[in-house]
Design a protein that fits this description.
The chain is an alpha+beta fold. It folds into 3 domains: 49 residues; 164 residues, no CATH class; 135 residues, TATA-Binding Protein (2-Layer Sandwich). It contains 4 helices and 19 strands. The chain has an 8-stranded antiparallel beta sheet, with helices on one face. Strands 5, 6, 15, 16, 17, 18 and 19 form a 7-stranded mixed beta sheet that branches. The protein has a two-stranded antiparallel ribbon with strand order 1-2.
């Protein structure tokens, strides 16, 4: 009997130790699993969260672009909902995407060659008022690369023969020259110069502008001096009663504030071409570029960093400063050149337009202010 009691007491003692031991083993297993998960996360499994973008090293102009990384966990528009207890699902607002900087195939551009303002306008002290929404300022615009002309002696001779010059062509480096007793032709790169050596006979009357422009256009195209892309043309001056100057710029892009590309033709009263100076590429290639932020463009205007044009023949006499109250009401794209011969571009400027009230002048006068606009472009010198 006493032996059975001792066996029961021993069994009950073993039961009291079995439960705590089992619980201890279970806790050790949970701890080991948690530790394994933590070590595996440290060994290479990134914690959940939005992926990051990989930055590309900054360019020479300090422009930094970013390679976007696709977030595979981003829900589709149908999945982007927020459920509220006891109510219908409410779509989450879509985040505003960051602006993408577009750099065209020409890469970063050289600084623009800004036109020089009239010296007398330095007296103006403009105060600008913006009566225009800045979101109307364009965010992108095309840049044009001028494809250089390539010449050889045979091509120059063909043009000379079309002009009636039958002499031999001489070459010096990349330049070609041909002349006879009456005419002379010089060609180098994008430049062509023509001169009729005989002096125009005085007398006669110049035709109207339409006839002068068409005469100059026909002469340029028929002699293959410019094959295509001529704009409308303008008669800029009538130097004498029997000599007029006609100027062409490209039809696209337009308008161009720079002196190139340009074709200038001097025509006599009898319709003969006396002189021609041509600076025109073989063709244009275009690429889209992002423009600078509209607020920074406007700050350039306010701080006097733009090219100022005032449609006024002259300011009141004197040397003292002239206050001018300028109200800006419009915006447009114009072009100027950048780079050097053989590597030239036509790059966009943003031009703000409006009217000014200038001390000493009755009424208002039109005003335009152009500022460099391309984001991926070096700042102008000076």
């Amino acid at each position: 009997m006493s032996g059975r009691r001792r066996s029961r007491r021993q069994a009950r003692g073993r039961q009291r130790w079995v439960v705590p031991a089992a619980l201890g083993l279970l806790a050790m297993g949970v701890f080991a699993g948690w530790l394994a998960l933590g070590l595996r996360g440290e060994a290479g499994e990134a914690p959940a969260g939005p992926p990051t973008a990989t930055p590309i090293p900054s360019t020479d102009l300090g422009i930094e672009t970013v390679t976007p990384v696709v977030d595979e966990r981003t829900p589709t528009p149908e999945e982007s909902v927020t459920s509220s207890p006891g109510g219908p699902s409410t779509p989450e607002p879509k985040p505003t995407p960051a602006a993408t900087l577009v750099i065209g195939q020409f890469g970063e551009l050289p600084p623009p060659n800004m036109p020089q303002a009239r010296p007398d306008l330095a007296r103006l002290q403009p105060h600008y008022t913006l009566a225009l929404r800045l979101d109307l300022v364009p965010k992108e615009a095309p840049v044009y690369r001028a494809v250089p002309r390539v010449w050889d002696a045979d091509r120059v001779k063909a043009i000379a023969l079309a002009l009636g010059i039958e002499s031999e062509v001489t070459q010096a480096g990349d330049a070609f020259h041909v002349a006879d007793a009456e005419q002379e032709l010089y060609v180098s790169g994008d430049q062509i110069q023509y001169q009729r050596l005989a002096t125009a006979q005085p007398g006669g009357k110049l035709p109207d502008d339409v006839v002068l422009i068409e005469t100059a256009r026909d002469w340029l195209t028929s002699h293959q001096l410019i094959s295509e892309g001529l704009g409308e043309g303008t008669v800029t001056d009538r130097l004498e009663a029997d000599l007029a100057i006609v100027v062409f710029q490209p039809a696209e892009p337009s308008p161009i504030l720079a002196a190139v590309p340009r074709a200038t033709v001097a025509i006599t009263a009898d319709g003969a071409i006396q002189q021609a100076f041509i600076n025109w590429p073989a063709a244009f290639e275009s690429a889209i570029y992002s423009l600078r932020d509209a607020a920074s463009l406007w700050q350039d205007v306010v701080r006097g960093r733009g090219y100022l044009e005032v449609e006024l023949d002259g300011l009141p006499l004197g040397t003292e400063p002239l206050p001018a109250s300028v109200t800006i009401t419009g915006v447009e794209i114009v072009y100027t050149d950048a780079g050097n011969p053989g590597s030239r571009y036509l790059t966009p400027l943003v031009r703000f337009t409006g009217e000014a009230m200038i001390t000493g002048i009755n009424g208002t006068v039109p005003v335009r202010v152009s500022v460099p606009a391309v984001a991926a472009q070096a700042a102008p010198r000076g």
